[in-house]
Amino acid sequence: MEVIEAIKTRRSIRRYKTTRVNNKTIELILEAARWAPSWSNTQCWKFVVVRDSHIKAKLADTLGENPATDAIRSAPVVIVACAELGKAGYKQGELTTDKGDWYMFDVALAMQNLVLAAHSLGLGTVHVGRFDAKKAEGILEVPQGFRVVKMTPLGYPDQEPKPRPRNELSEIVFNNKYGIK
Ligand SMILES: Cc1cc2nc3c(=O)[nH]c(=O)nc-3n(C[C@H](O)[C@H](O)[C@H](O)COP(=O)(O)O)c2cc1C
Fold first, then answer.
1. What is the pLDDT of residues 42-95, one digit of tens each?
2. CA-CA distance, 153 to 57, in Å (whole number)?
């Protein structure tokens, strides 16, 4: 699938078929994440691939009231993106900008690669950010110095959602200076 087409036709998928996703396909998708750009190529990301239904159920409980809770529980696979702190945005251990640790940014780049690659292979995903990350870290036994950032269910879509609206370019693009149309 061509990149622009993949970007425009990807949708958040919250209902999945039970069809198994084979390991080769998961590897291709993770490979797309691996090739994302990152701060000074520091690649702070780690991915936990969860197939165990008990662990998926526990992760789903960390979402509480969230439209993606059932998807995390029932999709054949859940991929949890973690980040090592103190790498993105740092030089020799010192922060280099006023924005703190850039791990959220770098993990987002990797996960967007991942969801687009999944979509190009006929698989569905949804970026899930609203959950109790501390609880998820406990469930997955994530070590000190790392955070769970986000997760996505992964599987074959059992729905075809309509596109959600986007702001027009005229509302978000300025010329030369902020606010100048
Ligand atoms: C950082 C981030 C966090 C998100 N967290 C959730 C979430 O917790 N639950 C959920 O159902 N969708 C979540 N979404 C999905 C958005 O609701 C969705 O991307 C948006 O409505 C646009 O729809 P689309 O992905 O189908 O284009 C999240 C998306 C992003 C980028």
1. 999 999 999 999 999 999 999 999 999 999 999 999 999 999 999 999 999 999
2. 12
Could you give the CA distance from residue 123 to residue 153 in angstroms, rounded to a whole number? 10
Where does residue 100 fall: left (phi above 0), alpha (psi -120 to 50 degrees), or beta otherwise?
left
- What spacing in Å lies between the alpha carbon of 93 and ligand 1's midpoint? 33
Q: CA 118 to CA 153: how far, in whole Å?
A: 11
Return the pLDDT at 7: 98
Mutate to test the pocket of ligand 1, among 73, 104, 126, 150 (most ligand atoms within 8 A of CB): 126
| The pair of three-digit structure tokens given for residue 61, joined into one six-digit string | 């409980």
Taking CA atoms only, the protein residue closest to ligand 1 atom 13 is 128
Q: Which of 19, 23, 39 is nearest to 31 (CA)?
A: 23
Phi-psi group of 9: left, alpha or beta (phi > 0 → left; psi -120 to 50 → alpha; rest → beta): alpha
Q: Quick one: pLDDT at residue 82?
A: 99
